[in-house]
Write a structure and sequence with these properties.
The complex is a heterodimer of chains A (about 500) and B (about 400). With about 500 residues, chain A is an alpha+beta fold. Chain A has 17 helices and 19 strands. The chains are: A alpha+beta (about 500), B alpha+beta (about 400).
């Protein structure tokens, strides 16, 4: 399977030298990467299947520099690809050959911690976990905790509306930020929100979150910080079938319990984890569920007994309950090792990211199994049981002819399956380039056109991260979003793919 | 109510699409109405014709163990809440009922109206507003196109989050035909810890202190002396604690212990009284009963008191006020003025950051005064372009949020 990106525009490529000279006036030498070998470091993010060498790499340190770069790009009609920590699993920051790769990693300062107002102002290049570390001295933390939190940046989290294990109870990025400073294509700086709740008019803050670097470049984020729960305890549960595990999850929710986290792993993953670094996971279980309950001691102890009773009623064959912090972390250790453990089964894996209604899990797992078998491959599953976000890991060996293409096909079929049962293409990794061509599975042409019109309101020349998320390039003039004078639209030779 | 408005009941999205397309072709503005409970919100700019969703009713999906409910936009909120309640669930954002402010039947709103104005209550600070609970929707845009966005699952970053955009958009982007909401379990019980007798600044400061503890307080409000619904002779700082019985009691005790050094006198509202109290605050009872113009200010929690002090200094005649969201939400009732005291109110807010929305004033005042907080030119221009991406001809609710040029 080949990924088709917009063809590099000759007009842009021919301006490379002029661009570099103009950028040298904005950025000091170390912040501008021109040399090919050095640019290679940026040729892909964590979606390593597809790579492209950016035109140049710009690493600004100030908002003024970002604004100047974007204004310059607009003036010269050169594309921009923003990049945080480069941990995207969907190619959101995959470079364009005719684009400036705008790396925000030098925006790495915590600007202000406002304990009184339970918020912090941070730069977008600050690592997710670093935010929690910055406020932990007073017992606070930043709730959204994607698994990549030791590496991913908060700016990237905003772009993807990142979640994490605890998002069922604590929400996603969009529920945990109060404000953004954004530079628009053209260089305009706007502030959305602040330290206060609710928008004054249209919720552009909510719109910007999860927009995958297509609407603007985030230069500052105001996040909510919460006091850490007093206590957290875990249950480690083994079930004799996926059905029983899924049923258990539904029963917990139906009972009115919203756990801090609820994760599930299938047999293949359990065994991989135990081989990788034994941590006491039950090898006889078809499904393993880890439930974390947090709050005050009294409440947690009560909820643990409630959940324990439900587990037994649903036929759990293994029940372990943590009695101290070390045990709780031990229960999680295997889950945290799941991805590296699975990569010991086969040299490569493709990690998918669909979301489904929880109750459909058994049939979707069976369906994914069948899809994989058809292509002679295997799938191991990790499932955010609390919110229905599924991470099937499609195992393959890239050195074997055709396996990567077959893995990709399995991935696409799995996502189609997710949509067919009422789910969505992506829960947290974003559409990027990976799922771009499947957007039609969920949306009609009209649906997509409306989204692209919104994009035109922010970036009428489609210079910001084009070729991502939406499967077709439209000229905003077609939507009547641009003033066309005398029948001649600006840049009439905009290519399509 | 403007008697001259012609109302067209739409039966489905196709009806709405046809009507909107026709109106756009003739440059005829259209209003959007459910049960009409929000008519007095926003700028007063009624269109001579309006589309009504009152025939667009029915819950189309409800799966309690999936925490999801979908309903057509005209479905009475009352029906949604009754159904959820029967299953021990709720809309955690507890939508505000505007009947106390404007008169009329209580709990008369449609679910579409709730979303259109982002009607949320005191628990918003912990549980999120309506915008945090809309998972997806179907609508007809100002172009007359039938469009959907989002889905029925919580984790969803497939395409732009238009759910956030339409919530609180007052029908100016699209006519909602169906909404899908995240629903949550109701708490087993609740209590409210009251701190009495502190001066205002000190009382509000206790709310902030409480929000920094790990007792999972779900609402933080402060009533000045004499304010409804408690009408006490002294200030009341109120902290709502929800959850299982055993947990609520221990958390309330822990909270009281943590705030003992405030010098306040402590009381507790048990379950029924607590629920009634927060429902009254949800509906702005402390200001609603006064006849005057009502403003709603949103600032950082530390700045609510400061903004109010600045407003007092400017001489604005404040009849009643109260704080919510640990001091970040200020409700005000002012003696009526032709300009609704907008310059003074906005200056008080702008000194600190945040926004002020005129909630209640006469039709004439709301036709003249900017109801929604002014935005800096780049942001205003961007908002306008976003509006036009849905409704280029300004058909839907023309002038409802911003005066037309």
């Amino acid at each position: 399977m080949t990924l088709i990106m917009p063809a590099p525009e000759p007009d842009i490529l021919s301006q490379r030298d002029a661009l570099i000279e103009r950028l040298r006036a904005i950025l000091p030498a170390p912040n501008l990467i021109v040399d090919e070998t050095a640019r290679r470091a940026y040729e892909c993010d964590a979606f390593t299947m597809y790579r492209a060498l950016p035109l140049v790499v710009a690493l600004p340190e100030t908002v003024a520099q970002v604004s100047a770069i974007m204004a310059l790009a607009a003036e010269m009609s050169i594309k921009i690809v923003p990049r945080g920590a480069g941990t995207s699993l969907s190619g959101g920051s995959m470079p364009l050959e005719d684009g400036i790769l705008l790396g925000m990693s030098k925006f790495n300062r915590v600007l202000e911690i406002d304990y009184e107002n339970r918020c912090a102002r941070v730069q977008p290049g600050v690592q997710n976990l670093a935010i929690s570390r910055a406020v932990e001295e007073r017992g606070f933390y930043y709730a959204p905790d994607p698994s990549s939190q030791i590496a991913c940046s908060i700016g990237g989290n905003v772009a993807e509306n990142a979640g994490g294990v605890h998002c069922l109870k604590y929400g996603l990025t969009t529920n945990n930020i109060l404000g953004l400073e954004v530079v628009l294509m053209g260089g305009e700086i706007v502030r959305l929100g602040g330290k206060h709740l609710d928008s004054e008019a249209y919720d552009l803050l909510g719109l910007m979150t999860g927009s995958e670097g297509l609407l603007g470049v985030v230069t500052e984020v105001t996040v909510r910080i919460l006091q850490k729960p007093a206590v957290a305890r875990c249950l480690l549960l083994g079930f004799p079938s996926v059905d029983a595990g899924a049923h258990f999850v539904g029963a917990v929710i139906a009972r009115g319990v919203i756990p801090g986290g609820m994760e599930m792993m299938d047999r293949a993953t359990i065994h991989a984890v135990e081989r990788f670094q034994p941590c006491g996971y039950p090898l006889d279980a078809e499904a393993l569920v880890i439930v974390e309950l947090d709050g005050t001691q009294a409440e947690v102890d009560l909820l643990v007994s409630v959940v324990d009773a439900i587990a037994r009623a649903e036929g759990a064959t293994t029940t372990k309950i943590s009695t101290n912090e070390a045990e709780r972390l031990q229960f999680w250790a295997g889950r945290k090792n799941a991805f590296p453990a699975v990569s010991c089964i086969q040299p490569d894996y493709l990690c998918m990211d669909g979301t489904i209604p929880r109750g459909r899990l058994p049939e979707v797992l069976a369906g994914m199994d069948a899809i994989a078998k058809r292509e002679g491959l295997q799938v191991a599953n990790v499932f955010h049981a609390g919110d229905g976000n599924l991470h099937p890991l499609i195992l393959y060996d890239a050195s074997k002819e055709g396996e990567m293409a077959r893995a990709e096909k399995v991935g696409f079929d799995i996502l189609r399956l997710c949509v067919s049962v009422g789910g969505v293409l992506t829960g947290e990794h974003g559409v990027g380039v990976e799922k771009r061509d499947l957007m039609g599975e969920m949306f009609t042409e009209t649906d997509l056109e409306q989204q692209m019109r919104v994009k035109c309101a922010f970036d009428p020349m489609n210079r910001l991260n084009p070729g991502k998320v939406f499967p077709t390039l439209h000229r905003c003039a077609e939507f009547g979003m641009m003033h066309v004078s005398g029948g001649a639209a600006p840049f009439p030779d905009l290519p399509r793919f | 109510m403007d008697a001259a408005i012609a109302t067209l009941d739409i039966r489905d999205a196709a009806d709405a699409a046809e009507a909107i397309r026709a109106a756009a072709a003739r440059n005829q503005p259209l209003g959007v109405v459910g049960a009409g409970t929000k008519r007095r919100l926003g700028r007063h700019a009624p269109s001579p014709r309006e589309l009504s969703t009152r025939a667009l009713t029915g819950v189309t999906l409800y799966e309690p163990e999936e925490l999801v409910l979908s309903a057509r936009a005209g479905t009475p909120l009352r029906d949604v809440l009754t159904l959820l309640d029967a299953n021990g669930q709720q809309l955690a954002f507890e939508p505000m009922d505007h009947a106390l402010l404007f008169g009329g039947e209580t709990c008369a709103a449609t679910i579409g109206g709730v979303i259109a104005v982002n009607a949320s209550g005191p628990r918003r600070i912990k549980a999120g507003a309506a915008r945090d609970h809309l998972l997806g929707f179907h609508c007809v845009t100002g172009r007359g196109e039938i469009v959907k966005s989002g889905g029925r699952v919580m984790k969803n970053v497939t395409g732009y989050d238009l759910s956030k955009l339409v919530t609180g958009s007052f029908g100016t982007l699209a006519l909602l035909t169906e909404v899908t909401l995240k629903v949550l379990p109701k708490a087993e019980t609740e209590q409210t810890l009251l701190l009495l007798g502190l001066d205002e600044t000190h009382a509000v400061a206790q709310l902030r202190r409480a929000s920094g503890t790990s007792n999972e307080v779900s609402s933080f409000a402060m009533l000045p002396a004499g304010a409804a619904p408690l009408c006490r002779a002294e200030t009341v700082a109120a902290l709502r604690i929800e959850g299982p019985e055993v947990s609520v009691a221990t958390r309330r005790d822990a909270l009281a212990a943590a705030l003992r050094d405030s010098g306040a006198r402590f009381e507790t509202l048990p379950f029924a009284e607590s629920a009634a109290f927060w429902a009254a605050l949800r509906d702005a009872a402390p200001v609603a009963g006064h006849s005057g113009q009502v403003w709603r200010l949103s600032l950082a929690p530390t700045d609510g008191v400061r903004a109010l002090a600045r407003l007092r200094e400017s001489g604005a005649p404040i009849l009643a006020h109260f704080y919510d969201w640990a001091g970040g939400l200020v409700w005000l009732c002012l003696e009526p003025a032709a300009d609704a005291h907008a310059p003074a109110v906005r200056a008080a807010v702008d000194a600190f950051g945040g926004h002020a929305t005129l909630i209640r004033a006469s039709d004439e005042t709301r036709a003249r005064v900017e109801v929604f907080h002014p935005q800096p030119p780049p942001l205003a221009a961007l908002s306008r372009r976003v509006k036009e991406s849905f409704d280029p001809a300004h058909v839907l609710e023309r002038g409802r949020m911003r005066a037309e040029a």
